[in-house]
Structure prediction request, 175 residues.
Amino acid sequence: MRKIEFFLIVLLVFSAFPVFSQGVENITVTTYYPAPYGVYKELKTTGNTSLAVSPNSQLGVGTESPSVGGEQDLKLDVEGAIGAQHYCDASGNNCVEAPVGRFGGMFMRSLLFPFPGACIEPNPLYNGTAWDRCHCPDGYTEELWNTSVLTVSVPPLIGSSLSACSYAYVYYCYK
Prediction:
């Protein structure tokens, strides 16, 4: 009789454990049929476009219409800031380190040709009134970054073709 009582008590205790350990959890899975595939033209998060590709293959991040036009059609148009350690040409070569601080453009002044100190490549970010535009925007510091050798074609003199080499000082502007 004791064995039966012991067996019933053990059976009662073990049958009560699953009741206490059961929890309720709801999982909702949303699927689409047919499942999306292929190339996405636009990705949105909470109603805001976070990535868009134009018909001309320009990529926009944070904008739904990547910029087209200007001197060069942009392949990447970012609404917001970009962090980069290096800037490279289209082939991935000729990389330079990004200047420290906030970038305010670059410009080049000649050492010799056409005359010393001539503005040979203006700063596109300069918004001042100087005639040569080889300056930093207001509030930015100018610093010599590099010295380059340039070959400049000059008009032919007495029927001959002539080109001149000149050193150029490359400056960058930063905050």
Remarks:
- The beta strands are 42-45, 48-53, 59-61, 76-78, 86-87, 96-97, 103-110, 119-121, 141-157, 160-174.
- The chain is about 10% helix and 35% strand.
